[in-house]
Design a protein that fits this description.
By secondary structure, the chain is α/β, with parallel strands linked by helices. The site of zinc ion (ZN) has 7 residues, from loops.
Length: 431
Protein backbone atom coordinates (compact mmCIF):
# COMPACT_ATOMS: atom_id res chain seq x y z
CA UNK A 1 0.00 0.00 0.00
CA UNK A 2 1.47 3.36 -1.04
CA UNK A 3 2.07 6.00 1.62
CA UNK A 4 1.24 9.66 1.25
CA UNK A 5 3.03 11.23 -1.68
CA UNK A 6 5.64 13.63 -0.31
CA UNK A 7 5.83 17.11 -1.83
CA UNK A 8 9.53 17.11 -2.58
CA UNK A 9 11.59 19.47 -4.73
CA UNK A 10 11.72 18.67 -8.44
CA UNK A 11 14.57 16.31 -9.23
CA UNK A 12 16.45 15.92 -12.50
CA UNK A 13 18.50 12.82 -13.17
CA UNK A 14 20.94 13.63 -15.95
CA UNK A 15 23.37 11.69 -18.09
CA UNK A 16 22.25 8.17 -17.18
CA UNK A 17 21.26 5.21 -19.33
CA UNK A 18 17.61 4.30 -18.88
CA UNK A 19 16.81 0.59 -19.18
CA UNK A 20 13.08 -0.05 -19.04
CA UNK A 21 11.87 -2.74 -21.43
CA UNK A 22 8.23 -2.06 -20.46
CA UNK A 23 8.59 1.45 -21.88
CA UNK A 24 10.82 0.09 -24.68
CA UNK A 25 13.71 2.32 -23.57
CA UNK A 26 17.35 1.38 -23.52
CA UNK A 27 19.60 4.37 -24.02
CA UNK A 28 20.63 7.83 -22.89
CA UNK A 29 17.73 9.69 -21.26
CA UNK A 30 17.30 12.36 -18.62
CA UNK A 31 14.45 11.91 -16.15
CA UNK A 32 12.56 14.80 -14.56
CA UNK A 33 10.57 14.15 -11.38
CA UNK A 34 7.95 16.56 -10.03
CA UNK A 35 5.56 16.07 -7.10
CA UNK A 36 6.69 12.47 -6.75
CA UNK A 37 5.76 11.63 -10.34
CA UNK A 38 7.78 11.18 -13.52
CA UNK A 39 7.27 14.48 -15.34
CA UNK A 40 9.40 13.76 -18.40
CA UNK A 41 11.83 11.24 -19.88
CA UNK A 42 13.79 12.81 -22.71
CA UNK A 43 17.26 12.50 -24.32
CA UNK A 44 18.18 15.97 -23.04
CA UNK A 45 16.47 18.02 -20.34
CA UNK A 46 17.62 21.36 -18.90
CA UNK A 47 17.82 21.95 -15.15
CA UNK A 48 15.66 24.95 -14.30
CA UNK A 49 16.09 26.98 -11.09
CA UNK A 50 15.06 25.20 -7.92
CA UNK A 51 15.59 21.73 -9.35
CA UNK A 52 17.89 19.26 -7.57
CA UNK A 53 20.19 17.51 -10.02
CA UNK A 54 21.60 14.00 -9.76
CA UNK A 55 24.51 13.25 -12.08
CA UNK A 56 23.95 9.72 -13.37
CA UNK A 57 26.84 9.58 -15.83
CA UNK A 58 28.05 6.00 -16.13
CA UNK A 59 25.00 4.78 -14.18
CA UNK A 60 21.90 2.88 -15.21
CA UNK A 61 18.50 4.31 -14.33
CA UNK A 62 16.06 1.44 -13.78
CA UNK A 63 12.44 1.12 -12.63
CA UNK A 64 12.49 0.44 -8.86
CA UNK A 65 12.94 -3.22 -7.93
CA UNK A 66 9.96 -5.10 -6.49
CA UNK A 67 10.51 -8.01 -4.09
CA UNK A 68 7.60 -10.43 -3.95
CA UNK A 69 9.01 -12.37 -1.02
CA UNK A 70 10.49 -10.93 2.18
CA UNK A 71 10.25 -11.77 5.88
CA UNK A 72 10.14 -8.69 8.11
CA UNK A 73 9.41 -10.67 11.32
CA UNK A 74 7.13 -8.03 12.82
CA UNK A 75 5.01 -8.64 14.81
CA UNK A 76 6.70 -11.13 17.11
CA UNK A 77 10.39 -11.37 16.31
CA UNK A 78 11.55 -7.78 16.32
CA UNK A 79 14.98 -9.04 17.42
CA UNK A 80 15.42 -10.55 13.93
CA UNK A 81 13.97 -7.67 11.87
CA UNK A 82 11.30 -4.98 12.02
CA UNK A 83 9.25 -3.35 9.30
CA UNK A 84 11.54 -0.36 9.79
CA UNK A 85 14.88 -2.18 9.48
CA UNK A 86 13.51 -4.40 6.70
CA UNK A 87 12.34 -1.34 4.78
CA UNK A 88 15.78 0.23 5.23
CA UNK A 89 17.44 -2.93 3.90
CA UNK A 90 15.04 -2.99 0.94
CA UNK A 91 15.77 0.66 0.11
CA UNK A 92 19.52 -0.01 0.37
CA UNK A 93 19.09 -2.96 -2.00
CA UNK A 94 17.32 -0.92 -4.68
CA UNK A 95 13.78 -2.07 -3.89
CA UNK A 96 10.93 0.44 -3.89
CA UNK A 97 8.22 -2.10 -3.09
CA UNK A 98 8.18 -5.34 -1.11
CA UNK A 99 5.70 -8.06 -0.15
CA UNK A 100 6.23 -9.32 3.41
CA UNK A 101 5.19 -12.90 4.15
CA UNK A 102 2.63 -13.58 6.88
CA UNK A 103 4.62 -16.10 8.96
CA UNK A 104 4.99 -13.68 11.84
CA UNK A 105 3.80 -14.14 15.43
CA UNK A 106 0.85 -13.70 15.38
CA UNK A 107 0.31 -14.76 11.78
CA UNK A 108 -1.12 -12.15 9.40
CA UNK A 109 -4.35 -14.06 8.78
CA UNK A 110 -7.08 -11.41 9.12
CA UNK A 111 -7.80 -7.91 7.88
CA UNK A 112 -6.83 -6.14 11.12
CA UNK A 113 -3.35 -7.67 11.02
CA UNK A 114 -2.86 -6.58 7.40
CA UNK A 115 -3.92 -3.06 8.31
CA UNK A 116 -1.48 -3.02 11.20
CA UNK A 117 1.41 -3.97 8.87
CA UNK A 118 0.51 -1.37 6.24
CA UNK A 119 0.02 1.28 8.91
CA UNK A 120 3.46 0.60 10.38
CA UNK A 121 5.00 0.55 6.88
CA UNK A 122 3.45 3.97 6.19
CA UNK A 123 4.77 5.32 9.47
CA UNK A 124 8.24 4.16 8.43
CA UNK A 125 7.57 5.73 5.03
CA UNK A 126 10.40 4.21 3.01
CA UNK A 127 9.30 1.50 0.58
CA UNK A 128 5.79 0.54 -0.53
CA UNK A 129 4.66 -2.49 1.43
CA UNK A 130 2.10 -4.85 -0.11
CA UNK A 131 1.51 -7.57 2.49
CA UNK A 132 0.86 -11.20 1.72
CA UNK A 133 -1.86 -12.69 3.93
CA UNK A 134 -2.02 -16.27 5.19
CA UNK A 135 -3.89 -18.90 3.20
CA UNK A 136 -5.04 -20.77 6.31
CA UNK A 137 -5.89 -19.57 9.79
CA UNK A 138 -2.73 -19.47 11.90
CA UNK A 139 -0.99 -21.12 8.93
CA UNK A 140 -2.15 -24.40 10.45
CA UNK A 141 -3.26 -25.80 7.08
CA UNK A 142 -6.73 -26.70 8.41
CA UNK A 143 -9.12 -23.88 7.54
CA UNK A 144 -8.90 -21.23 4.81
CA UNK A 145 -8.72 -17.58 5.87
CA UNK A 146 -11.35 -15.04 4.80
CA UNK A 147 -9.93 -14.22 1.36
CA UNK A 148 -12.36 -11.32 0.78
CA UNK A 149 -11.37 -9.66 4.04
CA UNK A 150 -7.63 -10.08 3.35
CA UNK A 151 -7.83 -8.71 -0.20
CA UNK A 152 -10.08 -5.84 0.93
CA UNK A 153 -7.41 -4.97 3.51
CA UNK A 154 -4.86 -4.69 0.68
CA UNK A 155 -3.10 -8.06 0.38
CA UNK A 156 -1.19 -8.59 -2.85
CA UNK A 157 -1.49 -12.38 -2.60
CA UNK A 158 -2.02 -15.15 -0.05
CA UNK A 159 0.46 -17.77 1.11
CA UNK A 160 1.36 -20.04 4.03
CA UNK A 161 5.04 -19.52 3.13
CA UNK A 162 7.47 -21.20 5.44
CA UNK A 163 5.01 -24.08 5.29
CA UNK A 164 3.31 -25.73 2.33
CA UNK A 165 -0.47 -26.02 1.98
CA UNK A 166 -0.74 -29.80 1.85
CA UNK A 167 -4.51 -30.52 2.00
CA UNK A 168 -5.47 -30.95 -1.69
CA UNK A 169 -9.11 -29.94 -1.20
CA UNK A 170 -8.11 -26.72 0.56
CA UNK A 171 -5.63 -26.04 -2.25
CA UNK A 172 -8.36 -26.63 -4.81
CA UNK A 173 -10.66 -24.17 -3.01
CA UNK A 174 -7.87 -21.62 -2.59
CA UNK A 175 -7.19 -21.76 -6.34
CA UNK A 176 -10.90 -21.36 -7.08
CA UNK A 177 -10.92 -18.23 -4.91
CA UNK A 178 -7.75 -16.95 -6.60
CA UNK A 179 -9.76 -16.84 -9.81
CA UNK A 180 -12.55 -14.88 -8.16
CA UNK A 181 -10.15 -12.29 -6.73
CA UNK A 182 -7.72 -12.23 -9.65
CA UNK A 183 -4.74 -12.57 -7.27
CA UNK A 184 -2.29 -15.44 -6.87
CA UNK A 185 -2.04 -18.20 -4.31
CA UNK A 186 1.65 -18.54 -3.46
CA UNK A 187 2.75 -22.05 -2.61
CA UNK A 188 5.85 -23.00 -0.63
CA UNK A 189 6.11 -26.27 -2.52
CA UNK A 190 7.38 -28.95 -0.18
CA UNK A 191 6.13 -32.34 0.91
CA UNK A 192 7.14 -32.49 4.59
CA UNK A 193 6.93 -36.28 4.66
CA UNK A 194 9.51 -36.48 1.84
CA UNK A 195 11.65 -33.77 3.44
CA UNK A 196 11.59 -35.93 6.57
CA UNK A 197 13.33 -33.44 8.80
CA UNK A 198 16.11 -32.89 6.24
CA UNK A 199 18.36 -29.86 6.53
CA UNK A 200 20.26 -29.81 3.21
CA UNK A 201 19.77 -31.00 -0.39
CA UNK A 202 19.85 -34.80 -0.62
CA UNK A 203 23.02 -35.57 -2.56
CA UNK A 204 26.72 -36.12 -2.28
CA UNK A 205 27.23 -33.26 0.20
CA UNK A 206 24.50 -34.46 2.57
CA UNK A 207 26.08 -37.92 2.51
CA UNK A 208 29.60 -36.61 3.10
CA UNK A 209 28.51 -34.37 5.96
CA UNK A 210 26.18 -36.98 7.44
CA UNK A 211 23.20 -34.62 7.35
CA UNK A 212 19.63 -35.60 6.54
CA UNK A 213 18.79 -34.68 2.96
CA UNK A 214 15.76 -33.08 1.31
CA UNK A 215 15.25 -34.61 -2.14
CA UNK A 216 14.30 -32.40 -5.09
CA UNK A 217 11.15 -34.54 -5.36
CA UNK A 218 9.92 -33.05 -2.09
CA UNK A 219 9.35 -29.85 -4.09
CA UNK A 220 8.58 -31.25 -7.53
CA UNK A 221 5.79 -33.61 -6.40
CA UNK A 222 3.87 -30.72 -4.81
CA UNK A 223 4.46 -28.53 -7.89
CA UNK A 224 3.06 -31.36 -10.06
CA UNK A 225 0.04 -31.79 -7.78
CA UNK A 226 -0.66 -28.06 -7.68
CA UNK A 227 -0.37 -27.77 -11.47
CA UNK A 228 -2.99 -30.50 -11.78
CA UNK A 229 -5.25 -28.44 -9.51
CA UNK A 230 -4.58 -25.32 -11.61
CA UNK A 231 -5.74 -27.29 -14.66
CA UNK A 232 -8.85 -28.35 -12.74
CA UNK A 233 -9.74 -24.91 -11.38
CA UNK A 234 -8.25 -22.36 -13.77
CA UNK A 235 -6.85 -20.62 -10.68
CA UNK A 236 -3.60 -18.64 -10.42
CA UNK A 237 -0.71 -20.44 -8.76
CA UNK A 238 2.56 -18.70 -7.98
CA UNK A 239 5.35 -21.06 -6.93
CA UNK A 240 7.73 -19.51 -4.41
CA UNK A 241 11.51 -20.03 -4.52
CA UNK A 242 11.73 -22.73 -7.22
CA UNK A 243 14.94 -24.66 -6.56
CA UNK A 244 15.27 -27.67 -8.85
CA UNK A 245 15.32 -28.66 -12.53
CA UNK A 246 12.22 -30.89 -12.21
CA UNK A 247 10.04 -28.00 -11.02
CA UNK A 248 11.28 -25.76 -13.84
CA UNK A 249 10.40 -28.42 -16.40
CA UNK A 250 6.93 -28.98 -14.90
CA UNK A 251 6.17 -25.25 -14.92
CA UNK A 252 7.55 -24.84 -18.45
CA UNK A 253 5.24 -27.60 -19.67
CA UNK A 254 2.21 -26.19 -17.79
CA UNK A 255 2.81 -22.71 -19.23
CA UNK A 256 2.92 -24.19 -22.73
CA UNK A 257 -0.50 -25.73 -21.99
CA UNK A 258 -1.78 -22.28 -21.05
CA UNK A 259 -1.91 -22.76 -17.25
CA UNK A 260 -2.09 -19.63 -15.11
CA UNK A 261 1.13 -20.24 -13.23
CA UNK A 262 3.93 -17.85 -12.33
CA UNK A 263 7.03 -18.47 -10.26
CA UNK A 264 10.11 -16.93 -8.70
CA UNK A 265 13.72 -17.88 -8.01
CA UNK A 266 16.05 -16.48 -5.36
CA UNK A 267 19.49 -14.96 -6.03
CA UNK A 268 21.07 -17.60 -3.76
CA UNK A 269 19.61 -20.52 -5.75
CA UNK A 270 20.93 -18.88 -8.94
CA UNK A 271 24.41 -18.33 -7.52
CA UNK A 272 25.19 -21.19 -5.14
CA UNK A 273 25.00 -24.97 -4.83
CA UNK A 274 24.87 -27.36 -1.86
CA UNK A 275 28.66 -27.20 -1.71
CA UNK A 276 28.22 -23.82 0.00
CA UNK A 277 27.12 -25.79 3.08
CA UNK A 278 30.45 -27.65 3.35
CA UNK A 279 32.10 -26.96 6.69
CA UNK A 280 28.59 -27.05 8.21
CA UNK A 281 28.09 -23.42 7.28
CA UNK A 282 24.68 -22.55 8.69
CA UNK A 283 24.67 -19.25 6.71
CA UNK A 284 23.95 -21.43 3.68
CA UNK A 285 21.15 -23.38 5.40
CA UNK A 286 18.00 -22.34 3.60
CA UNK A 287 14.67 -23.85 2.65
CA UNK A 288 14.34 -24.98 -0.09
CA UNK A 289 17.99 -26.03 0.12
CA UNK A 290 20.74 -25.01 -2.28
CA UNK A 291 20.90 -27.84 -4.80
CA UNK A 292 23.26 -29.26 -7.43
CA UNK A 293 24.84 -27.35 -10.29
CA UNK A 294 22.50 -28.97 -12.85
CA UNK A 295 19.59 -27.52 -10.89
CA UNK A 296 21.25 -24.13 -10.69
CA UNK A 297 21.82 -24.07 -14.46
CA UNK A 298 18.21 -25.18 -15.07
CA UNK A 299 17.03 -22.24 -12.94
CA UNK A 300 19.11 -19.83 -15.03
CA UNK A 301 17.74 -21.43 -18.21
CA UNK A 302 14.20 -21.05 -16.83
CA UNK A 303 14.80 -17.37 -16.17
CA UNK A 304 16.19 -16.92 -19.68
CA UNK A 305 13.27 -18.53 -21.49
CA UNK A 306 10.58 -16.90 -19.32
CA UNK A 307 9.52 -20.07 -17.47
CA UNK A 308 10.62 -18.30 -14.29
CA UNK A 309 8.95 -14.91 -14.12
CA UNK A 310 10.95 -13.11 -11.51
CA UNK A 311 13.70 -12.96 -8.92
CA UNK A 312 12.57 -12.65 -5.28
CA UNK A 313 14.96 -12.58 -2.34
CA UNK A 314 13.15 -14.66 0.31
CA UNK A 315 14.96 -12.25 2.66
CA UNK A 316 14.94 -14.30 5.87
CA UNK A 317 16.89 -12.53 8.63
CA UNK A 318 17.83 -14.48 11.76
CA UNK A 319 19.81 -13.61 14.87
CA UNK A 320 23.48 -14.60 15.11
CA UNK A 321 22.86 -16.67 18.23
CA UNK A 322 20.30 -18.80 16.38
CA UNK A 323 22.49 -19.27 13.29
CA UNK A 324 25.53 -20.05 15.48
CA UNK A 325 23.85 -23.28 16.58
CA UNK A 326 24.69 -26.76 15.25
CA UNK A 327 23.54 -27.39 11.68
CA UNK A 328 20.41 -29.40 12.58
CA UNK A 329 19.16 -26.77 15.03
CA UNK A 330 19.99 -23.52 13.17
CA UNK A 331 17.01 -21.95 11.39
CA UNK A 332 16.64 -21.92 7.59
CA UNK A 333 17.12 -18.59 5.87
CA UNK A 334 19.38 -16.01 4.22
CA UNK A 335 19.33 -12.24 4.70
CA UNK A 336 19.14 -11.28 1.04
CA UNK A 337 17.90 -7.75 0.35
CA UNK A 338 21.26 -6.00 0.40
CA UNK A 339 23.16 -8.49 -1.76
CA UNK A 340 20.42 -9.39 -4.29
CA UNK A 341 21.38 -6.93 -7.00
CA UNK A 342 25.14 -7.60 -6.83
CA UNK A 343 24.59 -11.37 -6.77
CA UNK A 344 22.31 -11.11 -9.83
CA UNK A 345 24.70 -8.91 -11.79
CA UNK A 346 27.65 -11.16 -10.97
CA UNK A 347 25.84 -14.43 -11.63
CA UNK A 348 23.61 -13.44 -14.54
CA UNK A 349 25.00 -10.40 -16.37
CA UNK A 350 28.74 -10.86 -15.91
CA UNK A 351 28.47 -14.54 -16.72
CA UNK A 352 26.67 -13.62 -19.96
CA UNK A 353 23.33 -15.32 -19.21
CA UNK A 354 21.00 -12.30 -19.15
CA UNK A 355 20.84 -8.86 -20.74
CA UNK A 356 20.19 -5.78 -18.60
CA UNK A 357 16.69 -5.61 -20.05
CA UNK A 358 16.00 -9.19 -18.94
CA UNK A 359 17.32 -8.50 -15.45
CA UNK A 360 15.05 -5.44 -15.15
CA UNK A 361 12.16 -7.58 -16.34
CA UNK A 362 12.91 -10.11 -13.55
CA UNK A 363 13.61 -7.68 -10.71
CA UNK A 364 11.08 -5.02 -11.50
CA UNK A 365 8.52 -5.34 -14.27
CA UNK A 366 7.31 -8.92 -13.81
CA UNK A 367 7.18 -8.90 -9.99
CA UNK A 368 5.24 -5.61 -10.03
CA UNK A 369 2.73 -7.19 -12.42
CA UNK A 370 2.37 -10.27 -10.17
CA UNK A 371 1.97 -8.08 -7.06
CA UNK A 372 -0.75 -6.11 -8.87
CA UNK A 373 1.13 -2.81 -8.72
CA UNK A 374 -0.27 -0.56 -11.43
CA UNK A 375 1.73 1.89 -13.47
CA UNK A 376 5.16 0.60 -12.63
CA UNK A 377 7.87 1.94 -14.94
CA UNK A 378 9.71 5.02 -16.09
CA UNK A 379 6.79 6.59 -17.88
CA UNK A 380 5.45 10.15 -17.68
CA UNK A 381 2.71 10.48 -15.08
CA UNK A 382 3.67 7.35 -13.09
CA UNK A 383 5.03 7.40 -9.51
CA UNK A 384 8.76 8.12 -9.63
CA UNK A 385 10.04 4.80 -8.28
CA UNK A 386 13.49 4.17 -9.62
CA UNK A 387 16.85 2.67 -8.85
CA UNK A 388 20.20 4.07 -9.93
CA UNK A 389 22.94 1.49 -10.23
CA UNK A 390 26.61 1.47 -11.05
CA UNK A 391 26.96 -1.53 -13.38
CA UNK A 392 30.78 -1.51 -13.19
CA UNK A 393 31.34 -1.05 -9.44
CA UNK A 394 32.77 -4.02 -7.60
CA UNK A 395 32.52 -4.46 -3.85
CA UNK A 396 33.12 -6.97 -1.09
CA UNK A 397 30.13 -8.06 0.97
CA UNK A 398 30.56 -7.10 4.61
CA UNK A 399 27.52 -8.13 6.66
CA UNK A 400 28.61 -5.72 9.42
CA UNK A 401 27.62 -2.93 7.03
CA UNK A 402 24.06 -4.30 6.54
CA UNK A 403 21.18 -2.17 7.75
CA UNK A 404 19.10 -5.35 8.09
CA UNK A 405 19.29 -6.88 11.55
CA UNK A 406 20.03 -10.18 9.83
CA UNK A 407 23.71 -10.62 8.99
CA UNK A 408 23.13 -14.25 8.03
CA UNK A 409 24.57 -14.45 4.53
CA UNK A 410 26.66 -17.03 2.69
CA UNK A 411 28.01 -14.15 0.55
CA UNK A 412 30.14 -12.60 3.33
CA UNK A 413 33.52 -11.75 1.83
CA UNK A 414 32.33 -12.34 -1.74
CA UNK A 415 33.38 -9.86 -4.42
CA UNK A 416 30.29 -8.75 -6.32
CA UNK A 417 29.86 -6.64 -9.43
CA UNK A 418 27.09 -4.09 -9.75
CA UNK A 419 26.05 -1.80 -6.94
CA UNK A 420 22.93 0.15 -6.08
CA UNK A 421 23.81 3.83 -5.87
CA UNK A 422 20.44 5.41 -5.07
CA UNK A 423 16.87 4.28 -4.56
CA UNK A 424 14.12 6.81 -5.21
CA UNK A 425 10.50 6.26 -4.17
CA UNK A 426 7.84 8.71 -5.20
CA UNK A 427 10.53 11.26 -5.99
CA UNK A 428 12.33 11.02 -2.65
CA UNK A 429 15.77 9.47 -2.19
CA UNK A 430 15.27 6.62 0.33
CA UNK A 431 18.51 4.70 0.04
O1 LIG B 1 14.80 -20.42 4.39
C1 LIG B 1 13.65 -20.12 4.68
N1 LIG B 1 13.39 -19.21 5.64
N2 LIG B 1 12.65 -20.71 4.03
C2 LIG B 1 11.38 -20.55 4.40
O2 LIG B 1 10.52 -21.13 3.79
C3 LIG B 1 11.04 -19.70 5.55
C4 LIG B 1 12.08 -18.71 5.81
C5 LIG B 1 11.94 -18.04 7.15
O3 LIG B 1 10.83 -17.58 7.46
O4 LIG B 1 12.94 -17.93 7.86
ZN1 LIG C 1 9.97 -17.30 2.49
Amino acid sequence: MAGERPMSKPLLIVGGTVVDPAAKRDGRFDVLIEDGLIADVHPSLKALDGVDVIDAKGKLVLPGFVDLHVHFRQPGREDKETIETGSQAAARGGFTAVCPMPNTDPVVDHGGAVEWVTHEARRVGLVDVHPIGALTKGQHGQELTDFGELFDAGCAALSDDGKPLINPLLMRRALEYSKVFGRPVIQHAEDPSLSAGGVIHEGVVSTTLGLRGIPAESEATIVARDLALVALTGGWLHVAHVSCAESVELIRHAKRQGAHVTCEVTPHHLALTHEAVEGFRTEAKVNPPLRGDDDRLALIEGLKDGTIDCIATDHAPHTDWEKDADFDTAPFGISGLETAFGVCVTTLIEAGHLSWGQLVQSLSINPSRIAGINGHGLVKGQPANLTLVDPKATWIVDPKQFVSKGTNTPFAGARLSGRVVKTIRQGTVIG
